[in-house]
Amino acid sequence: MPKxxxxxxxxxxxxxVNRKRLxxxxxxxxxxxxxxxxxxxxxxxxxxxxxNLAEMGLAMDPNKAVPLRKRKVKPxxxxxxxxxxxxxxxxxxxxxxEAEASLPEKKGNTLSRDLIDYVRYMVxxxxxxxKAMARDEKNYYQDTPKQIRNKINVYKRxxxxxxxxxxxxxxxxKMDVE
Length: 178
What we know:
Elements: H1 19-30, H2 37-42, H3 49-56, H4 62-65, H5 91-102, H6 113-126, H7 130-135, H8 145-158, H9 160-177
């Protein structure tokens, strides 16, 4: 809908606004957010990316950080010049990153409760007969015998201790019935 005629106000210049600070803050906000908290807290906005990473003991370009030997150069002609190592002013960042990397990885993949119940039900009622499992009325998704076998194998792989206890309980039930 168009605006009513004469209802727009003229923009006035804000003389009391500090433009230098406003632009600096806008530049900071426009910069990408650093995901790693260790690096983010040690970051100095007044320095370049290369200077910041060098102070933390990190490399901007991994190809230049670890130079590869040339195959054609003979070992006698290689100069013994070593590049002067940059002074690491913030070693705690590197130590924190190494400590975080050395932690064991969390096992993030789990199976849904429905799938676990489905597999247990099928194995309880049908044992190793995958064709009977495929014909079972609880096979809602109409899985083929191979798909059911794969689901059971995934369950065995994800929860080996639970599967061992479950199969032992099935053996005990068979012993009690006989």
